[in-house]
Structure to design on (109 residues):
C-alpha cells in the first residue's frame, strides 16, 4: 500500500480560530503556522484527505481534513490497532483500511 500524499494548503487563520474557540493555549498546541498538509491515508481511500497536526492529549489528536478547498480541523481518537512488531497505527480511529505500518512509502521516516 502507498500513502495518498495529496497536498493541501489549509488556511493558517482557520487553525488559529479553531484553537482559540476550543480554549487551547496556542503555545501548548500543535504548530499553528501550518502552511502545507499531506494526506496520510492510503492512496485509494474514500472521503476527505487527512493530515495529523498533533496530539491534544493521550486520547485526542488534532487532524485537518479536506476535500477540494474546504478544510476542517477535527479532534479524533487515535487508532489503537497494534502491528505485529508492537508499533501502533499513527492514524485516527475508524480510518479507511490500511494502517500506517502497512504503507510502503514513509511519510515521516
Amino acid at each position: 500500500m502507498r500513502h495518498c500524499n495529496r497536498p493541501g494548503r489549509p488556511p493558517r487563520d482557520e487553525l488559529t480560530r479553531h484553537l482559540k474557540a476550543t480554549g487551547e493555549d496556542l503555545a501548548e498546541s500543535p504548530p499553528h503556522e501550518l502552511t502545507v498538509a499531506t494526506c496520510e491515508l492510503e492512496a485509494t481511500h474514500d472521503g476527505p484527505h487527512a493530515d495529523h497536526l498533533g496530539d491534544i492529549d493521550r486520547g485526542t489528536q488534532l487532524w485537518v481534513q479536506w476535500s477540494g478547498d474546504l478544510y476542517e480541523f477535527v479532534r479524533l481518537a487515535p487508532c489503537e490497532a497494534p502491528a505485529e512488531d508492537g508499533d501502533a497505527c499513527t492514524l485516527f480511529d475508524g480510518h479507511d483500511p490500511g494502517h500506517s505500518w502497512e504503507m510502503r512509502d514513509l511519510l515521516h521516516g
About this structure: The mean pLDDT is 83.
